[in-house]
User: Fold these one by one.
Assistant:
Number 1:
Amino acid sequence: MDSWDTTLDGVLQLPSGRLVRGRSLRRPLPSGLQPTFALYLLGHQPPSVAWENRWIRWPDFWLPTDRVKAADALHEAWVRAEVERVEIACTGGKGRTGTALACLAVLDGVPQHLAVDYVRLHYSPRAVETPWQRRFVTRFLID
């Protein structure tokens, strides 16, 4: 299976080499390859898409409403990213998406206290928008 192009905007390469695309649902779907699996982080049901996906109920600027289900979905995305094109998306593509990407970085071996900085360096300087999103990442896999 073809992988994401690492030169495209929004593609994060984790230390293991796994690639995950983060994006804003406000913007049109990028041209080129489509995801084979996606996580949509929204306070409401996402629109229908042609690829397999999971929805995490996650209100804007906040945290997932069910942290156990969110952790399970993030773990699934991390596992699938080894061999599939995985996309993580929310409305703006920064706060919730950045938080989820930082959690994937933790799953990939980045220490919790460094994961937000990793995602801000390799994905977007504006990733992870609130103090509680940052705390969610630093406590991910501990709670």
Number 2:
Amino acid sequence: MSAYWIAEYDEVTDDAKLAAYAALAGPAIQAAGGRFLARGLPEQTYEAGQTTRTVLIEFDSVAAATAAHDSPAYQEALAALGDGAVRDIRIVEGV
């Protein structure tokens, strides 16, 4: 069953670190089978109205998404990000 990696960026504290992360993370995620479905600021918000950067990535399974996150290539991207952003990542199984 498919799974979705959802990342929400509450705050970007260092644009250079975020750029370094993105340069490494995108290829690492795609190499692990991730497909970027959405990325950016919301076009419309409701309820809490948070205009935070959101990224939605599809994987074939929760195991594939978890393996992507735990891979050496993605861990290298996380090291490049360091304290450059405050964010939350969730992996959710599809329905």
Number 3:
Amino acid sequence: MRKIAMTVAGAALLVGAGLATAPGAQAATPCPSGAVCIRETNGTILSKNIFYSYGAHNLSNVTGYRVVVNSQTGGAGFQECLGYNGTNCSPVYRATGDYAAIDYTPINSLVLVP
């Protein structure tokens, strides 16, 4: 229980500092159903950052803190990768919705998985 409380306290600290919050619901562009999207810092989503097909997608000029939105259906997930072409990747994230903002400067590709 202590670990959970410390994790919640840490998350609250990040949210209070504005580091883990998504853009306001009114300002944010929705991610289309069936896609994974990367939001710009102003809450918009560029068409080049909407991904529908499974497999690796190399990123270009995606830097700074970004929010990823998983709008895929059927339990499909995604991975964030340090290398191009889907190498050196994170675990698979399957939950739908907005993820906490992270620094995308070292991230070079996303992999969509069924």
Number 4:
Amino acid sequence: MAREQLGICAEANLHASYLLLNALDGQEKLLRYKLPLISQLLDRLSEHFSEAMLTGIVAIGSNFWSSLYPNARPAMLDAFPDLAVDEFNLSPVPIDLLIVVRADRLDVITIACQQILQLFQGLVEVQEQLQGFRYLDGRNFTGFIDTPYNPANRIKRQVALVDVAQQPIFSGGSYVYFQHLSFDQAAWHRLSQAEQEEIMGYDKVSGKALANIQQLPCSHLATIQNLNAAATVLIQSMPFYQLQRQGVIQLNFAATSEALKLRLHQRLGLSENAKGPDLLLNYHRVELSAAFFAPSISFLEQSAKD
């Protein structure tokens, strides 16, 4: 049985670092050899700092996959859709590698990132390094609980991980959409709590869905509830904060590429049953979007030997 990357379905942590890397020309063979070493590196640190709950994810960009692994490609692994609704631009960018390190100790994450970058010295260049953190009791800068509608327990694995019956080679892997969004906090705070709850579709304190009579057809929650089971995804989100901007770093995981596309189209108001774009998007600007596939550890290890 394929060994999936534990960071995909792991419980939330207090901190996370996101490394967006581009490979230098001609380094594919060395990268194939070194990518599975990341899980070994994280395992060693996890044993040494057991209280940190350290996990990680390695994902390969849709644009880079065939260069790195020319003999096999996940079904329907495509670039992030270049869609636009009104003035909302998704800003798709081709990124070769995404490495996520999560833990309850920021110092342990720092050690892990330093060792990972040392491992890949001379093979990649850092496009960006982003830092996320847990805010209050799992909320984002809207003040609302983040993703209270997320799949839980065993459903996570069904939603996020490729089934062996569908794609034996890529079983235990996951399709990934990455988005870095800035948030207009000043405009949001000019709204009353009732107006904010109408946009979100659920109660600000408890996270419980508003009664049907109160639900706006394009509320954030309504755009999710209107999806069918084939479009269910697992979301990992963390706020980020800098002096001049703040927002959210969001990872969407799914067992199929189609689920991610359906979810995105629904949120943008482009699907057949959509009533319009998610109202929450009016308060966000996408800084970067990218598509990846996070293969199983078993695939990474086997490919390093080929």
